[in-house]
Design a protein that fits this description.
278 residues; alpha/beta; SAM-dependent_MTases_sf
């Protein structure tokens, strides 16, 4: 058994790991992430404290992850030659194992050094041109460890809301300046939701603790505003969380809650996936 000790915000990766494990145990799994289940069984942790026991937690997280997987796969199919996948704030996500990219793909997982150490201990080596970088994504130097000689698809799930706007802007500018072309894929919240979460953090939000809610800083209302951050950056696509396919897999109470929430002011825009090209 492995012991895990992480900060509160980093610890959210245990909640998402557990959610993917629960999804893998379902009769009709969305991600089929059996590696996540194997890791959960090896880690000495009180998983009930993650707050992901509700059936809809596993489903909603799996559906969001599946759509980012699909966008990533779409990029790889559209660029069958040598490309780079840059997976930011990877945590214990097994995306590289789920997608099993061909040898022509250079895959780079980036997260804090202690998270990368944990990945080495818990996750199997995926093979191929795979590497890990231990650093905060906001540090200036880590990108120099990644060759910028290929088109890139950047995947950032559960990251942007924890950064300040200037940190996101600088990160995107550095990526666009480092690679010749590519796509940026990430999930985000609306500014309204971020403000409300910080004001009402004492309530908690499912598996999201008060400390995590107070760590949310950045939200997006108009994705096209980001186009002005870099020359050539172009808003390409969006998918609202309430429109993710297969929401009928949610329990009835969760489906009804999402439909009601989507009709409230700002409810529909509160969470979405965004795709940009450069």
């Amino acid at each position: 058994m492995e012991r895990v000790a992480l900060t509160t915000v980093q610890g959210t990766m245990l909640a998402t790991l557990y959610a993917r494990a629960l999804d893998s145990r379902a009769p009709y799994s969305i991600l089929g992430d059996h590696i996540a289940d194997e890791v959960v069984r090896r880690v000495e942790h009180d998983w009930s404290k993650t707050g992901t026991g509700a059936p809809w937690d596993a489903v909603t997280l799996a559906l969001r992850g599946r759509e980012l997987d699909r966008w990533t796969t779409g990029f790889l199919h559209a660029h069958p030659g040598e490309v780079t996948v840059l997976h930011l704030a990877c945590g214990l996500d097994t995306r590289v194992h789920r997608l099993a990219p061909p040898p022509s793909v250079r895959w780079v997982d980036v997260d804090y050094p202690d998270v990368i150490d944990l990945r080495r201990r818990l996750l199997p080596e995926p093979g191929g041109d795979y590497r890990m970088v231990g650093s905060s994504v906001t540090d200036e130097g880590w990108l120099e460890e990644v060759p910028g000689d290929r088109p890139v698809v950047v995947v950032a799930e559960g990251l942007t809301m924890y950064l300040h706007e200037e940190e996101v802007r600088r990160l995107i500018q550095r990526i666009c300046g480092h690679f010749p072309s590519g796509e940026l894929l990430f999930d985000c919240f609306s500014k309204r939701l971020v403000r409300m979460a910080r004001k009402m953090s004492w309530l908690g939000l499912g598996f999201v603790s008060r400390a995590v809610l107070e760590s949310w800083h950045w939200g997006v209302d108009d994705p096209r505003e980001l186009e002005g951050w870099c020359d050539g950056l172009e808003f390409a696509d969006e998918l609202y969380v309430v429109d993710v396919p297969d929401l009928d897999r949610l329990p009835a109470v969760a489906r009804i809650g999402m439909r009601v929430g989507a009709r409230l002011p700002g409810g529909r825009d509160s969470g979405r996936l965004l795709r940009f090209r450069f």
